[in-house]
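seq/struct pair 1
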Amino acid sequence: MRNRSFLAVTCAALVAFAAAGCGGAASGAGGAQGGAASVAPADTAAFVAVDTDLGSSQWQALDGLFRKLPQHDALLSELRRAFEQHSQLSWQNDVEPALGPELDVAVLPAASGGKAQVVLLTQPSDSAKLDSLLGKLGAAKPQTAQVGGWTAISESADALAAFSAATQHLADSSVYQEATGKLAGDALLEAYGNGAEARRLVSGLGGTVPAGHGQLVWAAADVVAASGGLRVDGFTRSDGAGAAEPYASQLVGEIPSGALAVADFQAGQDAGTQPPASTPLGGALQSLATALGGETAVYVSSGGLIPAVTLVTRSSDPQQVLDALHAALANVGSAAGSAPKTGGIDLGSLLGAIRLSHAVVGPDLVVSTSQQALADFEAGGRKLADDGAFKAAQSAAGMPGKTTGFVYVDLADSLPALQALATLAGAKLPGGDLSALRTLTAYGTGSSSGVAGFTVFLEVR
């Protein structure tokens, strides 16, 4: 444990905290997070607030979700055991008593050429326990300061000084207020990022921010546990970017029912707005993105030993799409084949052996790795729009009839298929009965004034 990074230990502790929180704490009211924004400097680049009140309604809801997993108790015990083994800390005696009802993380803009300055903020239940916990970090022990009723913890004395000297605070920032005003208010976690400060942070580290898609003003997201699953809602505001228009998917009425996974989007970007490709693979993928046109979907369906992958698009030049697809597959296979083989299937050889079948069906170009999948698309019968699992996922996630694109995964059927494929490839995935994980749905929503939203929902039942 000695001299281990304080931030690494904190991340591990949060994982163990999740395990403890799903162990059946007493019921509590819960409430809005982000109280330390009242002491964080106004120019904070990123801010994350975590509910650490194990009695809150959010932790009770999360516990209810975890208990739907048959191996619930064994999984949580393993998480706690792994944390204590690697950190050499006792969760019950060292960590839990040192935490308050909320743990916030603030990332401050770095000076030119410097690294990001991170500050943790808490209101410990037992200050002596927090001091004892920090003391057990050895030479890696961070510094602390008391700021407005919060204990600020950081490896950087300059960061703590910035907190103490701040006269303008994040909570009073109109940008922060606008961003977090979109969030639920009662969440397991809330996150905020300031676009201008994030660009400064990236520039200070010697990086560049891609242009051509507008300037990000702010981004915000939260994680909320509900009775039917785990939900992430996010929002971004950008200046100078054309807003994506929501559309009603037509392809859900054409894709066969029973798809394991579907990604549906509007394609056909102007190549001039894309960053230049720096590798042959990047160039091939960029050419493919440019060749696609109108509503496009990529979906995976069961197809014997290896699932079939099918692309549907409404391109004005089908041959250009086919050429771009073949080039992309060749480049992916070349990249995979250049890596040393460590066992299992040679991915480079596999991709090199893939043969694509295609057909023009009405206005659609359909390209698939399986002739049977192509025939299924052309045939009548039930379609994705009629699929019971898909309809249930839409309802559970609150997915509207019009989106700016969506992703859907039937976890109930795809996880067993993935585990079988991993076994074939000589790999081993985490075991256990995951049948309670039903679907994963993600979608974007359009909005006015440069604000765009997205939702990710993991259905658990």
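seq/struct pair 2
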Amino acid sequence: MIKKTRMPKTRPMLATAVEKPFDSDEFVFEIKWDGFRALGEVQDHKVSLYSRNLNNFNNKFPSVVEHLSKVNEDLLFDGEIIAYDSDGKPSFQALQDSEKNNARLEYIIFDLLYLNGKKLLDLELIERKKLLQKILKKYPKLVYSEHIQGKGINFFKQAVKKNLEGIIGKRKNSKYLPGKRSESWLKIKHHKRDEAIIAGFTKPRGSRQYFGSLVLGQYRNADKLTFIGHTGTGFDESQLSSLYKKMIPLKVKKSPFKSDVPLNSPITWIKPKLVAELKFAEWTSDNIMRQPVFMGLREDKSAPEVSGEKLKKLTGVRTLRSQK
């Protein structure tokens, strides 16, 4: 009898951002889903759904837990929890208050890390996907993340047409590296999006309640928090109230920045713990986000991870000549 391997809590493998799409027979390509990364563990008929920083998601997404509870194998999935807006499109904002607005949720699964006591991390990606696809055919409420081989450029064009977040390219033979950012997995974004740490907020003006703008930072230099701008847009009344209630218990007297922040309004400082998702126009020459818009809080990411995404040039990939 084979002794089962106890599944440890596992941090997900991370992708490296590159500048543009490419074609390569060494890669398969998937949609980059705009949601919360989540690992779904089923062991001895017990379900544990948790985030990339190991926060438990069971209470936040009970419908996903219910779907996972139907699984009869012991296994560990890697995937993304997404919500759909009223037009039926994936929406990060709809995911923020999915319980209140009864948004339709899906757990879209793209990898299989453990199966019935067997560790699959060293198995090639394409073999893990074959096993995953076979298993998910039994459970229609759990969604397999489809992929195509080789043709990343056209796949990206289709993602842009549908106004999706972007695509992910993964080497077919890649092993799974828990918690590591690898160039075996590459992400190509359609929208300019990044995370920032909320370091404080200003007073509201006019008829607005709760706060005016959020003061934003990233850990650009080791443990030094760097100011990257501020945003006062992207909130409805409910979000203003909800976010204000989360910030108030974190109030501190001293700025978390080492240098002065170039804002004229008085600032209420908070502990740098809350992570915001933002869309923006571009980075200025002095590394400030231009026209940032608040999209929601990232409960699946912790503040120390937020160092600013750097795009890399594509290297070490054999692209198809016909598509160069």
